[in-house]
Amino acid sequence: MDERQTQILLALRQITEEVAAQHTLDKAIDILVQRIRAVTSADCCSLYLSDPFKKYLRLAATDGLEKSAVGKTNLQFGEGLVGYVGLKQELLDLADAPSHPNFKYLPDIGEDEFFSFLGVPVINQGELQGVLVIQSKKKQCFDELEESFMVTLSAQIASIIATSKNIRDSNESNIKRCRGESGTGGIAIAKAIVWQPTLNLDDVPITYTEDRDMQLELFNQAIFQLQTEMDQATLEMQEQHNDQAANGYISGYGSMLDDPTFQDEVTTEILDNGLLASSAIKVVTEKRLQKFKQNGLKEKYFDARDFAQIIISRLVHTSAQSVKVDHEKIILVVKNLPAAMVAELDRNNIAGFITVDNTTSSHTAILARDLGIPAVISVQLDLNEIDGRTVIIDGHNSEVLIEPSQSVIDEYRQLISQNREQADLFSAEKNKKAITLDNVELKIQLNAGLSHNDSDDLAAQTDGIGLYRTEIAFMISQTFPSEMQQTEWYRSLLEQFKGYPVCMRTLDIGGDKGLSYLPIEEGNPALGWRGIRVTLDQPNILKTQLRSMLFAQQEFGNLEIMIPMVSRLEEVISFKKILNEAIKEIIVQTNKPVKPPRFGVMIEVPSIAYVLPEIAKEADFFSIGSNDLIQYLMAVDRSNQKVCRFFDAFNPAVIRCLKYLCNECHKLGKPISVCGEIAGDPLGSIMLLSLGYTCLSMNYSELARVKYICRRVSFADLQKIGEIALTLDNSAKIRSLYHEYAANQGLNRIIDMDDLRLANK
């Protein structure tokens, strides 16, 4: 062993011991970079640490770069040479770093004079802790002895760094994390305020009165008071150009306010039985609650209960508890969000929602999605534990953080800032066509449910509507909407997108989507009475909807119709028979010709893959509903916390199925698109393009981002990437492949870093 090897071995032991002896992480890593620079031929040594959420790498210590950059310079995984090492988790030794395709110039850190670069990952128990880097002014690779020294040292200090990071995080915060069943995008940081009715129905006593006329008058006044508030709330929402939402959010209470049966029953209890108005409301309501519970009408149960409590509160001269906002924004925490809250809250002060014991089809979830407010649904927590505390909502990960440390808050604030910067970046290109680098024009369409009247140029941002969820309008109504009502809905949409295709999916209920006025109670709803099965069994409902669509499109001619949850050829044939009947009826009724709309079939049930040729003879196009297709393909309920981790769009079986469907439809000469959530996911959109898909449909919030991505990728190159992906045997490798391509295209900041963390496990 020569003298230099001996010195290196001695230095390894000394550095490890000295770093381990330090009481703080900051002191330890400062000593680390100083000692490494002194031992090697490097002119600079730096350590980048991964943040607690594996979102990026931050410069934590340096001997050779600008000290002012410490704690401020961040690199996403895959970004620059440091990010590349973090992504690949492999050593990188370069003689001329600026010539590497992943090199990124950072003007504020003072590395202009350095050419040689040696980066090694610091990994502890499979988790990346950071990247250790040495640099030199000379244009030559570091030698094998220095490589070995850096690799060995990084392995020895990895556990020290990991332990120190954990201790620091623990000392800084008693943070508690709670997961929900689902979330609505975005991040919110604010004080949590719990809303609960001031009066519990169970606590209302049964009391009798001598002055029955007075009690009846008080009841009528309370009804009038609440009606006035609801009318005001409706007006406010309409002024904000959200007519459908206005109808939907207050429909639960509006129907009860206008329900003569409810009012007659309460009147009877007051006048005939001599009950106090509050007692009469309790008696009538409890009878209804029992029926709702027996029929499994959960949302209607809670709406009726909340309504009764609010009316009784008016009777005892108290309103439903208003949320006292003494700061700019609050996070509203509720068990079940009553629709009447719209009348009592200034929504400009709501940063986010948290619901307890709720479902994704609740008023809260609908409101959050439509208004673009971060939310986490069905979180199991004690309301007293969260009230008045600082809370972070992470809608992307369906997570709530209670009393986070300042460092965690700072991390999330940086993410919010980055999200805003990205939104501005995407917005600048929202009206441009999605044309790839090799001039392949893609179709980027909209998934819609409620109207987006607030966006005057919405049509110009899209290539039409790839999926209009007609069931949303049904869900926010209290009865089946009439043919005239539906016609007006559909005509308004077709007019807004005049000149662009509008694909309307027929009523898709059952499973996780229910109607309060058409209860479906099943042991296994995902495999039960849903989608086209419901409407074929109720042909009057289906024909009314089809007639409405056909009437609406007469002036515009841009209607397309698509049917959901098809599993058999017979369903398609039966549907077309009803459609043709509807067309004939309108011809007779109007004495005008009717142009049959283009007709499509959703591919959600795997059985369709094996009868595509037969169905293609009946259909004009196909669209993949990836959410249900993956669910059925993998036998995974994604709302089930025990198995949702197996719901994976990048599973080899899934991407091979998607490739097969794309190829077969092309052979059959039938257009095919994807309208499930994966189409709007940054990495998912790249994956779909690589499999040959050229038409993607997504929610409004995702349009500009996916367009931005499409304009920065090569369709031909992605076909090659896709061929490689089809040969890989697990989703981690597949994700990593697409992440690497995205990073090479400069798209790493857009890709979800949580996916990246999974890919590297």
Features:
761 residues; alpha/beta; Beta-Lactamase; Glucose Oxidase, domain 1; Enzyme I, Chain A, domain 2; eight-stranded mixed sheet; globular; disordered C terminus
Task: Give me the side-by-side strand order of the main sheet.
Answer: 7-14-13-9-10-11-12-8
Mean pLDDT: 83
Helix amount, in percent? 40-55%
Instruction: Based on Cα principal axes, name the global outline.
Output: globular
Structural class: alpha/beta
CATH-level-2 architecture of the domain at 3-172: 2-Layer Sandwich
Beta-strand residue fraction: 15-25%
Distance between the termini: 37 Å
Low-confidence stretches: 317-322, 359-363, 753-761
**The CATH homology group name of the domain at 3-172:** GAF domain
The largest pleated sheet is described as:
8 strands, mixed
Output the CATH class name of the domain at 3-172.
Alpha Beta
Evaluate the radius of gyration.
30 Å
3D architecture notes:
With 761 residues, this protein is α/β, with parallel strands linked by helices. Among the domains are: 3-172, GAF domain (Beta-Lactamase, 2-Layer Sandwich), CATH 3.30.450; 176-195 and 322-405, Glucose Oxidase, domain 1, CATH 3.50.30.10; 201-315, Orthogonal Bundle (Enzyme I, Chain A, domain 2), CATH 1.10.274; 470-600, TIM Barrel, CATH 3.20.20.60. Helices cover 45% and strands 15% of the residues. The protein starts with a helix and ends with a helix.
